[in-house]
Amino acid sequence: MNKPLILVVEDDSAVRNLITTTLETHNYRFQQAPTGEAAILEAVSYNPDVILLDLGLPDLDGIEVIRKVRSWSKVPIIVISARSEDTDKIDALDAGADDYLTKPFSVEELLARLRVTFRRLGDSLGETGQGAVFQNGELRIDYAAGCVYLQGRELHLTPIEYKLLCLLSRNVGKVLTHTYITKEIWGSAWDNDVASLRVFMATLRKKIESDPSDPKYIQTHVGVGYRMLKV
């Protein structure tokens, strides 16, 4: 079986060489693109398994590249950018990015993000539709029955808590922004109602986390959103 193919979109040759050398050392296949237009062409031509994307490209803004790729592909996109403001992360994630890594970064962190992405891809390929059972550590969701179990014991969740948990579980390893979650759960009328979302997330955590102050399943990205971790 071939190793995954990764498209590296980065105009800074030093950073691009660091990333590609790391990938080569760990036996990943890769293609390179120094511009946004080249990235789109490479994505169409080679159908990569993951795209590593810098936002500050010389011809197109990376956000525009994400939107263009998302118009025809669901390939995971990990943004690697020097832009560290929450608004930049939110814009990238809302445009369709799956994860966001801020420069400077360690190669260990980059490899860890890739492993999480490939695990999520494997989980999604293994799903069998609405009848699938989601298992993550001691947490189990029977989508068909609408039941949630922790350590074999059924949990009693409110409808909103259950919808939140299902949304996160179907996107394991992916950061979901506040805007995305509220639109998916409540619709546009609840858009950006972050305070209400935090209340429901807190009650959900009390039911599934042994220590809500040090969560194992649901990770908070302050000012951005939430991510379900693969345990």
UniProtKB/TrEMBL annotation:
Q: Where is it chiefly localized?
A: cytoplasm
Superkingdom, taxonomy of origin: Bacteria
GO terms (BP aspect): positive regulation of DNA-templated transcription
Keywords attached to this entry: Cytoplasm, DNA-binding, Phosphoprotein, Transcription, Transcription regulation, Two-component regulatory system
Where is this gene product found?
Cytoplasm
Q: Which InterPro entries match?
A: CheY-like_superfamily, OmpR/PhoB-type_DNA-bd, Sig_transdc_resp-reg_receiver, WalR-like, WH-like_DNA-bd_sf
Q: What is this protein called?
A: Stage 0 sporulation protein A homolog
Query: Where does this protein come from, organism-wise?
Result: Harryflintia acetispora
